[in-house]
Amino acid sequence: MLPTSGSTTRKLLLAFGALVALFTAASGFALARLADIHDGSHQLREAGNRVRDALELATAVRDQYAHVAHTIILGNASHVHFHEESRARVEALTRSLREQAQDEEERAWVADIQENGDALERLYRDSLLPAVLAKDHATVTAVHSQVLERVSLVQARAESLAHRFDNSIGSFEAHVGAVEHNSFRWALLLLGGATLFAIGVGIYIGNSVARPVARLSEGAARLAQGDLDTRIPENDPGELGQLAAQFNRMTEALRTHQAQLVQHEKLASVGRLAAGVAHEINNPLGVILGYVRILQRKAEGPLAEDLKVVEDEAVRCQQIVEGLLDLSRPGHGPMEKVSVRETCEDVVARLREAERLGQVEVRVEGTASAWAQPLRLRQVLLNLVRNAAEAAGTGGTVEVRIEPDKDGGASVAISDSGPGVKPEDRRRLFEPFFTTKSTGTGLGLAVSQAIAEAHGGRIEADTGPLGGARFTLRLPPASAEREAMA
């Protein structure tokens, strides 16, 4: 399971968070500007209502004066009722304007309208109407002049208010227009930026997620088709890069395990073949060697040399048969805790006594203990040291380095100063019958690897510190059951 705190996850979360924040900011800004536009529209409606009330007030005052004029013309009180209705209308509009006044100047003008309206009402009730009914033309003429003056003042104030309110409508319209323009510009900028950022996030997701996932899918498809050399680039720094690395390690492990299975199958096949024919081959070989050695006692000259060749070849055949038998039974018997250094020194001493080391210097360094079958372990070490000495040649050097592992196992690295192993031969070293020596059987390393694997370990080949080949025998730690037995 991939960790949620990885770099790719954090980047995606940050990118989506920034994208959501940007869209939220754009939406918030647009909503705020819409609220400003709504407020401006509301103020425009209020200003329009004030203009309408001011103009209606001027009209209502003219209507009121018309009823005054009809009273004078008709010379009776037939229009008193209509005058009262007009007066009530003037009063209502004056109150509305008083409530809508925005500053002291407007309130002063409304107060002036109220004062002149009251004076007009008093002139009509107290002076004009009684004079009309009394047929007092001189008084009617004088009062009429005062009424006209009051009506003119009220109309002038009402028209001034209407003009003032109309100017405020223009300023409100300019403000609303500016808000709309700025809102559109900023909204376009924010939404355009959010769109570009979203495109960038999409490209990032394509490069950092979709493309690596596609590579993983393609690699898995190739692996499913049997291509065990499939590798996926690990250049992504996030979780997908870690997943690619895990995929590559899994593929390498699978390739290694398959190679081991193939190798084991080869060894098993050879072992089954060896087990079936070894007995039949050993018996004739034993008879041949027996008669050859009897004849050697009596033979002289060229015949003795020929018999020696026959003996050597028969012995070589016996060694091949023994190697095949070793492949069929690498060893699964009881194990003991042995000193690896003592075993190595004993192997070197035996090879030295048998004159198999020649003029090669062999050094044993380090110490460790391991669980193993002593005879099988000695067989593996003897084969590896003998091969190293043959590769080093006269005057060469072989180094046997023993080291304990941290987990309780041990390793024995056998290095030589010889020419080393060619890269193209390295992967075939442990195949049966593969050899780079003219006199080798090609079974020594295969048998040694089979014995090492029977112990739960393995032999690895690479280049050593002396410039030649290095074969490292790795022995695993002891199990709990073996430690309890000890």
TrEMBL record:
Protein name as catalogued: histidine kinase
Limits of the Histidine kinase domain: 276-479
Cellular location(s): Membrane
One annotated Gene Ontology cellular component of this protein: membrane
Lineage of source species: Bacteria, Pseudomonadati, Myxococcota, Myxococcia, Myxococcales
Keyword annotations of the record: ATP-binding, Kinase, Membrane, Nucleotide-binding, Phosphoprotein, Transferase, Transmembrane, Transmembrane helix, Two-component regulatory system
Pfam families for this protein: HAMP (PF00672), HATPase_c (PF02518), HisKA (PF00512)
GO molecular function term, any single one: phosphorelay sensor kinase activity
Organism: Myxococcus stipitatus (strain DSM 14675 / JCM 12634 / Mx s8)
Catalytic activity: ATP + protein L-histidine = ADP + protein N-phospho-L-histidine
Assigned EC number: 2.7.13.3
Domain HAMP as annotated: residue spans: 207-259
PROSITE patterns: HAMP, HIS_KIN
Annotated signal peptide: none
Domain of life: Bacteria
Membrane-crossing residue ranges in chain numbering: 186-206
